[in-house]
Amino acid sequence: MSRSLKWTLAVSAVFAASSMFSACNKQEAALSKSLSEGSTEVAAQTSKSVVVYFSQTGATKKLAQVIKEARHADEFELLLVKPFPSTYDSTIAEVRAERESKQWPALVNAKLDVDKYDTVFLGYPIMFGTFTTPIYTFLEANDFSGKVVVPFCTYGSGGRK
Questions:
Q1: pLDDT tens-place string over residues 22-75
Q2: Helices (H), 2-79
Q3: Are residues 108 and 77 in contact, defined by beta-carbon separation less than 8 angstroms?
Q4: In a 3-state reduction of DSSP, which class is residue 145?
């Protein structure tokens, strides 16, 4: 390849790259300007999220807080009318009995105004290989038709020391 052809190709490549970056910068500037001028319009188009969770030991609550902050979501902590027992073995016995009888525990706040939200993040600890029993109560009390439900869970491998 001749020296002049190499030079021509190099100049063409530099010109093409600079044109491409210039176009990208112009698009970025236009997008930035439209976002700053129309920020209420953009905000109106974003989905509204809520983080719903039940936390036995606080681990699920910590993860729920991270999601809440990252998504700028509302928070809805599920609370038991009668809390689980304070010891590991007693809690396991109670949860086992609830599962066998399919009698889910009562929640102080089982009903959520689901219509306000597009996305529901649902957090829970794992017990017996699946979500803990208060989640059954919550799921039975609410209709999630047309909603995006994103489950998340924590697992601590038991409480025995």
A1: 333 444 444 345 445 554 444 444 669 999 999 988 999 999 999 999 999 999
A2: 3-37, 39-45, 59-71
A3: no
A4: coil
